[in-house]
Design a protein that fits this description.
heterodimer, B: about 270 residues, alpha/beta
Chain lengths: ~270, ~270
């Protein structure tokens, strides 16, 4: 169950998307988010779907793998859909006591689902195709202008990268502790919400203690390897904004323009 | 390479000393095993070698530099690399080669040179084919070799390993030991191996046994392991072959003491058998 969470993991490869500069990818992802919220109507979403599908193909990350990232959000998606279905006022199609199904409700629910799906699919590609260190590097460079006003950009980037690095390790550990507690009779699956939340305490306490111990050891290991913050740091892979990044940005902008025009026209 | 003079240490003023008047000199190119049971102070000693801990009394010289000299901290850390027990807790990056590059990146080595160093380090530990892999998908032995490569990338003169095989299976243990032996013989790397495992200590040029913060033995392995009763009194074991020969001697067979390798045991037993 815990291994199903793929959001925020790297899928090594050598596609065009993998080779793009991380900073450019971050900026394009942000523009993509704006694009999603600008698009309305079926034509726009149809084109957006084609666009996302093409990008997934281009990334060489298996579609199954990308779709798996949606699974943990399923409940959230369903909840949003139901909320939109019954809470939107408009032309009533069907009514039962206070629940009423409206034409507008269906319309909004479908769009909300599409929006969330596109949002997750598009942005998860960022982490799939960018190694966390490259991502960190990208974020750091993206934030560099803010370092001038005293923002701890390197520290922030390092923290994020370490967090990403330890996600699989801590998930594995959670799984192990959970099984150990279950073997001793712990019950994580039955009872009401409060009972289940309380059942998590024997899981969270050892997990936190172990995480602190790990942090301590990691800090010493980093010191042993001469870590001294962001000062005078060099990089193994220096990414410069190259031809491929400019072409990709232009292609993206072109696609965005096409989608938005079609969106306005439709 | 590493020299301690009357090294004394405690974690806070009131507690008893963890290390008491330790005098060790580790020479260039030596392979030294440090043994001791839990809480004997062996890990604490190791942390003095690259200025993670500073002595309360006495002095430590690492690569000729006094570890108290804060201005040369990174020269010390760079010369004396350190590998720890849990491979998961020393890998920083999510791609093998980026992790190996971590130390040279910190040191501000130019990019082209980092690439060269990383390729060399991975080749030395035999992990070149995994350089694009995610570390959490590797086996324990492979992860530990990556950790060694990460330290090698600083081009150190000496590597101190604090129980690097304690969390590994026998195959991983052999991988790591082979790597260390290779580094010591081919690259003339000084190796300080802190371990629980007597069969690993046999490979060393010299064995130092620490008990209650004091050095009780400091000699080549065949001498250290010749007095089986004394080693056992310190709460430690002897290598399996040594144990076997010891039992045979006790049973009245005329075999020499201090046998530590299977080959020697074979020779000794062949002689007895005629």
């Amino acid at each position: 169950m815990l291994k199903d969470i793929t959001l925020g993991q790297h899928f090594p490869g050598n596609s065009v998307l993998h080779r793009l500069d991380a900073m450019i990818k971050i900026i394009l992802s942000m523009l993509y988010l704006v694009l999603i919220f600008l698009v309305k109507g079926f034509v726009g979403y149809g084109l957006l779907a084609i666009f996302v599908f093409c990008i997934i193909l281009l990334s060489t990350v298996p579609i199954k793998f990308v779709l798996k990232g949606l699974k943990p959000l399923l409940i959230f998606i369903i909840f949003t859909a139901i909320l939109n279905l019954f809470m939107t006022s408009g032309t009533v199609i069907w009514q039962w006591s206070f629940l009423k199904l409206t034409y507008e409700g269906i319309y909004f629910a479908v769009f909300m689902i599409l929006r969330i799906v596109f949002l997750v699919l598009g942005t998860s590609l960022l982490t799939y195709t960018t190694s966390p260190i490259a991502l960190t590097d990208g974020i750091e460079r993206f934030l560099t202008p803010f370092a001038k006003i005293g923002a701890p950009t390197h520290e922030l980037a390092m923290m994020m990268s370490i967090a990403l690095r330890f996600i699989p390790t801590l998930l594995e550990e959670t799984d192990k502790i959970m099984k150990a507690q279950m073997a001793r009779g712990a019950d994580f699956e039955s009872g009401n919400l409060i009972k289940r939340a309380r059942a998590l305490i024997p899981l969270l306490v050892p997990l936190f203690i172990s995480a602190f111990r790990r942090a301590d050891e990691l800090a010493i290991a980093m010191e042993c390897r001469c870590y001294q913050g962001g000062k005078n740091r060099t990089r193994l892979n220096v990414v410069k904004v190259g031809k491929i990044d400019i072409i990709a940005s232009l292609v993206f902008l072109l696609c965005a323009a096409v989608i938005l025009t079609a969106n306005l026209a439709g | 390479m590493i020299k301690t003079e009357k090294l004394t240490f405690n974690y806070s003023g009131e507690q008893p000393n963890v290390l008491k008047d330790i005098d060790i000199e580790i020479k260039n190119g030596e392979f030294v095993a440090v043994l001791g049971h839990n809480g004997s102070g062996k890990s604490t000693l190791a942390k003095h070698f690259n200025a993670i801990l500073l002595p309360v009394g006495g002095t430590v010289y690492a690569n000729g530099i006094n570890t108290k000299d804060e201005s040369r901290l990174y020269d010390i850390r760079r010369a004396i690399g350190m590998v720890f027990q849990n491979p998961d807790n020393q890998i920083v990056a999510t791609i093998v080669e980026e992790d190996v590059a971590f130390a040279p990146e910190n040191l501000g080595v130019p990019t082209a040179e980092i690439r060269e160093t990383v390729d060399w380090a991975l080749d030395t530990v035999g992990m070149t084919e995994y350089k694009q892999h995610a570390p959490h998908l590797l086996s324990g032995g492979q992860k530990q070799r990556i950790a060694i490569a990460g330290v090698l990338a600083m081009k150190p003169k000496c590597i101190v390993l604090d129980e690097p095989t304690a969390m590994l299976d026998p195959i991983g243990r052999k991988e790591v030991m082979d790597t260390l032996m290779h580094l010591n013989s081919k690259n003339a790397m000084t190796i300080v191996l802190i371990t629980h495992n007597m069969d690993e200590a046999v490979n060393a040029d010299r064995v130092i046994i620490i008990s209650d913060g004091e050095i009780v033995k400091d000699a080549p392995p065949h001498i250290v392991f010749s007095d089986v009763d004394e080693i056992k009194a310190l709460g430690l074991d002897v290598p399996q072959v040594t144990e076997l020969m010891y039992e045979l001697r006790k049973a009245g067979l005329d075999v020499p003491s201090g046998v530590i390798t299977i080959e020697d045991a074979y020779k000794a037993l062949s002689e007895v058998a005629g």
